[in-house]
Amino acid sequence: MAIVTRVPLFSSPSSSFNHKCSLLLPDNSPIKLISRSSSAFQRRRGIVGVKAAMTTVIVTGAGGRTGQIVYKKLKERTDQYVARGLVRTEESKEKIGGADDVFVGDIRDADSIVPAIQGVDALVILTSAVPKMKPGFDPTKGGRPEFYFEEGAYPEQVDWIGQKNQIDAAKAAGVKQIVLVGSMGGTNLNNPLNSIGNGNILVWKRRAEQYLADSGIPYTIIRAGGLQDKEGGIRELLVGKDDELLQTETRTIARADVAEVCIQALQFEEAKFKAFDLASKPEGTGEPTKDFKSLFSQISTRF
């Protein structure tokens, strides 16, 4: 029995498969058919290609307060990212869930971080030297606390050598983008942060940033203002250069907002080969930032 097609059995890939089709029998009596569901039919017929490759991102310093947020955000976006973390100790690994995608390694030991970085598309660097308060400080007696860095954990070793090791490992592994979180204040050698523990932390951070900018790898350098443990996504974000924001009343930012900017930087060409200061307006002032492409487009500085 001959069948004459009145309409195509399926439409172009850009149109919906959930539509009705009709066929004509020789006596002109129509037969109504309902096409198979789009996803199932296309998969079985090979019409739909393989799902777009996921972006594998490793967060170093994933046990830190900001690193934990970035790692968690990546884990929640399973349609876009395959998340990895790098921490220094097994205790830190357990603290963030102990998943198999969390590697243990010491950024000061170049060989120990190579396995973690193999096969990743992007690297988010959130490692930093952390000063400790000297014991015996009594806030009731006034004065200021004194700080020190543990032996082997000075900014030169962590923020310079450790970050250089990460950049070198990423370059050798063919990583396509590095997001590095630093700190505002690096244009001023006399910044008080440099005097903490005699560590010159901003000096060494700045040196690592320059090394990244000279590496040839697409990069995004985020120099964050004072970090706050507050809810993110509810403030207007501000970008600047050369510590200009330090001369204003908007010098702080929520860690959650820094984390979001790290991830958004992976999505836009406008964020590549850029270095910028980052802060936010006070909550309730301005409009919460949603258009990150426009935010990155405001930036013209490469270092």
Automatic annotation (TrEMBL):
NAD(P)-binding domain boundaries: 61-267
Record GO cellular component, one term: chloroplast
Molecular function as annotated in GO: oxidoreductase activity
Pfam families, per database record: NAD_binding_10
CDD domains: SDR_a5
UniProt superkingdom: Eukaryota
Similarity remark: Belongs to the NAD(P)-dependent epimerase/dehydratase family.
Name of the protein: NAD(P)-binding domain-containing protein
Species per Swiss-Prot/TrEMBL record: Macleaya cordata (Five-seeded plume-poppy)
